[in-house]
Amino acid sequence: FAELHAAVAGLPLSSSRVLPGVVLRRDFAAYCPAEGHLRAVLVTEPLRTPLPARGVEFVVESEDQYQASLCWISRRTEALMKHLQSNNVKLLLSSVKQEEVVIYYAKLHGVSVVECLSAEEIALVREITGVSPYTPFGDNIHREITETAVATFCQPLLLGSRKCVHVGFTSVCSFQPHCLILCGPVDGVNEQHAAALQGAFTMLQQLFKRVDL
């Protein structure tokens, strides 16, 4: 329930509504509008290509080597974004903050980015879509990307003064997510309404369990 409702203070109760899909409490780090269904990937690590592998020491002995290293990182990051684009990936959902070079090449190749998602939000998207996080680095970063979810729409959403991301995912199970937008004059009223609704849903769950038995 915590991930499937959002409270907005300063608006009348009549402004409350139910929206299909999921509302992520983050703004776009990069937004590239796309029509129709689009492919999305989850990532849980920075996409800026690391120079050394884990446990390997990398020594830079001159300014020229340092600049060459930065150029190599930039080219590899651009190649990764081109690879996402060639696999028709239009949305990148990240649990970590990505570096500016990643955001730059994402915008350049038409990939929207939402970063710093919570563990709960990532878990919800995984439950809905059935996909695992994409790991780009390894022996072959150009392999086909199979860890993709399908989104029917992805757009900005303004809740009061807060910018959010509204995404509709194609669910792989019977669970069809909807998000409850609770509006009220002050936070305290919204908290009371949220607690009452959560209690009502819990009661309905228990009732239907008894009917099933």
From TrEMBL:
GO BP, sorted A to Z: chaperone-mediated protein complex assembly
Domain of life the protein comes from: Eukaryota
Protein name: BBS10 protein
